[in-house]
Structure formats: structure tokens, C-alpha cells
Amino acid sequence: MNIYVGNLSYGLNDNDLQQLFAEYGPVASAKIIQDRDTGRSKGFGFVEMPSDEDGGKAVEGLNGQEVDGRNLTVNEARPREERPPRRDNNRW
Fold it and tell me: Residue 7 is part of a domain; what is its CATH number?
């Protein structure tokens, strides 16, 4: 199960996120999304758990929980929406 985790503290790292979800079962991956230019956390991430049952328990157990002073938003990730290609304003 792919899980979206929002409203993360900017001080958390991938390992912190993995440990948070490991209480509910095995974690295949945990990644906090970072700004391309600054390298700073964007305040959200994704966790992949092999078991839908464990993933469901993690969503239920962690959604709304306070971590580092922020209430997490945790739900099953939706597929990424297709966006039109960006225009390159530098081309003539």
C-alpha cells in the first residue's frame, strides 16, 4: 500500500518516517519529498508498506496524531494526475 503523509515537521528525515510506520508493520520505503532547489523538506512524503492490512492500520493509527508538534495527515496515496507538459518560456 502506498501511503501519503502530510503536515510533516521540516526537521524529520526519511529514517524518522520509516521508524514511525515500522510500529505497524514492515516498511518497504519511506521518502520525504524535498524541494529541488533548496533541498529542504516540502512537508510531505510517501511510505510504501507491502501489506495492505498493515498499511490500513498505520493510516488509521497515525492520521491526526501529533508528531514534532504537528498533526499528521495520513491516507492512502492517490495515483499521480497527468499534467500537461510545462512550457519553456526561454525558447523562441
Answer: 3.30.70.330
Up-side HSE of residue 75: CA atoms within 13 Å toward CB? 4
13 inside domain: yes
How many CB atoms are closer than 10 A to CB 34?
A: 14
Q: C-alpha grid cell for residue 22?
A: 515500522
Which residues, 6+ apart, have CB-to-CB distance to 73 below 8 Å? 4, 5, 6, 7, 63, 64
What span, in angstroms and rounded, lies between the C-alpha atoms of 50 and 40?
Answer: 28
**Domain, as residue range, for 19:** 2-42+49-70
Q: What is the mean pLDDT of each run of 10 residues along the chain (92 residues)?
A: 97 96 98 94 97 97 96 92 73 56
What's the domain count of the chain?
Answer: 1
Q: How far apart are CA 38 and CA 22, in angstroms?
A: 29
From residue 49, alpha-carbon distances to 18, 46, 85, 86 in Å are 10, 10, 31, 32
